[in-house]
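Hi, here's the filled form for the chain we discussed.

Project: internal
Contact: R.S.
Residues: 282
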Amino acid sequence: MTRQQVSPAPITLDGIHRFDDSLPDDAVCLVTGGASGIGRALAIAAAANGLTVAATDVNREGLAETVDRCEELETAGSVRPIVGDLTSDRDVERIVVEAAELGRLTFLANVAGVQHVDSIESFPMDVYDRMQRIMLRAPLYLTKLCLPHFRESTEGCVGNMASVHGHYVTSDKVAYNVSKFGIRGLTRSIAAEGDGSIRSFSVSTGYVKTPLVADQIEATAEQRGISAEDVVSDVMQGQARVDELMEPIDVANLFLLGFSDHGRHLNGGDLLFDGGMTTTYE
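And the returned structure, exactly as it came back:
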């Protein structure tokens, strides 16, 4: 039953908010982590809103499934898969080159994420380094490489996947906590140097129905000495005032809001949709 609690509903056109009139119809949106979870949902939602999506991930098969789902939904825009490893600078550079070849590169969504549950004393440093490369260094380097394209077209926007763990921390997730606090710093740095024409924002959510969340249940249960069911009810939902986990498409819609003209005053800010997890207490 625990896995079912964190399994997302199928993505349908009805669940995608439409921002067609407030998004440029010739724009390319580069999305990392496009093979699953929030990255897949955002790639599909952006395509449904008419954008050309450069979806990148190390998982070739997962990217193909994302493309297939877009074709099944007959989205107005398209998803173009770019297989790449965010821990490789050469791959990151190639990803941006291939994305720019698709049209006017306007949006960058840094969504890709990984998790490892362990205490600070036991945390393997090679895992720590890999997590920082994926969730902090790659977003910075992708931004650096995208900025010239944004400046050439006089507009652009970077959306970064943050988390409640960029506002407060939970134990045994030091690498994730550090990266999410860091991504909020990157978001503000982009805004500081964007001169108003290039914006940035972050999205902070509680637990979302993704493979990343599902895969950490057993490790969290073992680390804390509680049942898997208690991980979902007490850890993932315990502090929130909304007794359901978010769907990936809900988060995708927030990214599109930030990218659209409706988000034109959102610059360096964070969209905190956490069900009250970090802002209320009993």
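Let me know if anything looks off before we file it.
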